[in-house]
């Protein structure tokens, strides 16, 4: 694996050089949209409807819509002046119990590997977290912004870092129609507890499979085996005819305005020479 980030984990006066690696990967089946008629992949363009032209990436800026159709432009220097966590540092602020954090807070997981000279401090932090049953609640700068994070032990031997949502990013469920803890009989509760106890087992992730993805991939393989594959030649780049014609018309108008209309030259709209008005 290739490391995505290099920096340090710090708590108190202890600093551990570390590397981060993506701990998960997207295994979903992704599709591209094709034109049903010719099976050509559809392209999406950065299009400005006001200027009626395609916009290059270098001509784009960030805009925050603070009111409908009213934008504040944010430049790179605006972002650089904002307070963020220290670059290349995972700063542990507190140590808390993992069970005190609801899973709704967690976003993405990264494996943590010690950097050069960090093996001893890495092993010490891992053992201390295991002995105390705690995780480190930290602040880190990833992808140009500050994030909450949790440093914890994964499968007894590896530290991992979990990026987290901030509390104000969690919606309230107060408006939902949640039933009160009533309406069922004690016998029904006992039966439900018995059913849960009967179905309880150890969590073995290797037994879990994405049956939908497997079935979808099998269906794709069947279509490939049945030669239901469309080969699409890349279209040659062509000039946009409407824009080209308009450019030619405007060029003719400018030329006529500069030297005056010449005999035998058709009018810019292609209608041909106009007859002279009657005397």
* Percent in strands: 25-35%
Query: Which CATH architecture of the domain at 5-28 and 83-168 would you pick?
Result: Beta Barrel
CATH fold-level label of the domain at 5-28 and 83-168: Ku70, Chain: A, Domain 2
Strand order of the largest sheet: 1-2-8-11-10-9-7
SSE order, as H and E? EEEEEEHEEHEEEHHH
- Shape designation: extended
Q: What's the β-strand tally?
A: 11
Q: From the helix content, strand content and strand pairing, which structural class follows?
A: alpha+beta
Helix content: 10-25%
Report the biggest beta sheet as strand number plus sense, adding barrel if it closes: 7 strands, mixed, barrel
User: Average pLDDT, to the nearest integer?
Assistant: 85
The radius of gyration is 32 Å
Termini separation comes to 88 Å
Low-confidence stretches: 270-279
CATH class bucket of the domain at 5-28 and 83-168: Mainly Beta
Helix segment tally: 5
Keywords: DNA damage, DNA recombination, DNA repair, DNA-binding
Protein name: Non-homologous end joining protein Ku
Family: Belongs to the prokaryotic Ku family.
Function: With LigD forms a non-homologous end joining (NHEJ) DNA repair enzyme, which repairs dsDNA breaks with reduced fidelity. Binds linear dsDNA with 5'- and 3'- overhangs but not closed circular dsDNA nor ssDNA. Recruits and stimulates the ligase activity of LigD.
């Amino acid at each position: 694996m290739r490391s995505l980030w290099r920096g340090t984990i710090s708590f108190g006066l202890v600093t551990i050089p570390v590397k981060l690696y993506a701990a998960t990967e997207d295994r979903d089946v992704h599709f591209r949209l094709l034109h049903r008629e010719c099976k050509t992949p559809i392209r999406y363009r950065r299009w400005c409807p006001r200027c009626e032209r395609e916009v290059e990436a270098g001509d784009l800026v960030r805009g925050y819509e603070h009111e409908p159709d009213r934008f504040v432009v944010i430049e790179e220097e605006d972002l650089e002046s904002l307070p963020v966590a220290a670059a290349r540092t995972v700063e542990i602020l507190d140590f808390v119990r993992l069970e005190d954090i609801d899973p709704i807070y967690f976003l993405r997981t990264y494996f943590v590997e010690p950097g050069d000279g960090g093996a001893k401090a890495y092993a010490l932090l891992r053992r201390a977290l295991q002995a105390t049953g705690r995780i480190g609640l930290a602040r880190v700068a990833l992808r140009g912004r500050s994030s909450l994070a949790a440093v914890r032990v994964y499968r007894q031997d590896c530290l991992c870092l979990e990026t987290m949502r901030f509390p104000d990013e969690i919606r309230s469920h107060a408006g939902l129609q949640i039933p009160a803890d009533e309406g069922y009989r004690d016998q029904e509760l006992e039966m439900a507890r018995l059913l849960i106890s009967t179905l309880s087992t150890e969590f073995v992730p290797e037994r879990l499979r994405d049956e939908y993805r497997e079935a979808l991939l099998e269906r794709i393989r069947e279509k490939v085996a049945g030669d239901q594959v469309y080969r699409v030649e890349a279209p040659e780049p062509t000039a946009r005819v409407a824009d080209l014609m308009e450019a030619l018309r405007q060029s003719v108008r400018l030329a006529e305005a500069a030297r005056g209309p010449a005999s035998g030259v058709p009018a810019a709209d292609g209608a041909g020479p106009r007859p002279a008005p009657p005397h």
